[in-house]
Amino acid sequence: MKINKVYPLDVSTGEALKEIAKGIPSLMKLLFRLVKDKETPTHIKLWIVGTAIYIVSPLNLSFRAFKRFPFKIINYVDDIALILLTIQKTLYNTPKEILEKYWDHSMPIEEWTDLVFKIQSDIRTFRH
């Protein structure tokens, strides 16, 4: 059972976003390496590969008939939601040892994941 830290962390939202952005290249390498690793659970590999295929696939949900601004965003919402869901499932369902083996960012993966959770918490608090 994972014990969540107390939120919000002692970091501003802006600082958290900067650190998350710095970790994105490491996250991309991590996802690629997880797919190649024999120890990665099969369902995680399926999520990663399935998401990659969906993103590059020409058969994507498309709302081209809606050319006005608010509706143009709908074209990207499904992609972003799927990417975020895949990242969340990967980080929370892959054994910690495997994640640490392939994570090459200066900040430990657990701390980076906590920053992501902080942003999610901040967004939920802002909506209410």
Give a topology summary.
Layout: H1 13-36, H2 42-56, H3 69-72, H4 74-93, H5 96-102, H6 109-127
Helix pairs in contact: 1-2, 1-6, 2-4
What does this structure look like?
The chain is an all-alpha fold and 128 residues long. It has one domain (13-127). It contains 6 helices and no strands. It has helices at 13-36, 42-56, 69-72, 74-93, 96-102, 109-127. Helix 1 crosses helix 6 and helix 2 packs antiparallel against helix 4. The radius of gyration is 16 Å and the shape is flat.
Task: Characterize the largest beta sheet: strand count, sense, and whether it forms a barrel.
Answer: none
Instruction: Give me the Rg, rounded.
Output: 16 Å
Overall mean pLDDT score?
Answer: 82
Shape summary: flat
What portion of residues belong to β-strands?
under 5%
- Separation of termini? 28 Å
Strand tally is 0
How many DSSP H or I helices?
A: 6
Number of domains: 1
Element order: H for helix, E for strand: HHHHHH
Q: Unreliable segments (pLDDT under 50, ≥5 consecutive)?
A: none
Give the class from helix and strand content and strand pairing.
mainly alpha
The helix fraction, in percent, is 55-70%
In short:
By secondary structure, the chain is mainly alpha-helical.
Observed structural traits:
mainly alpha; flat; 128 residues; 6 helices
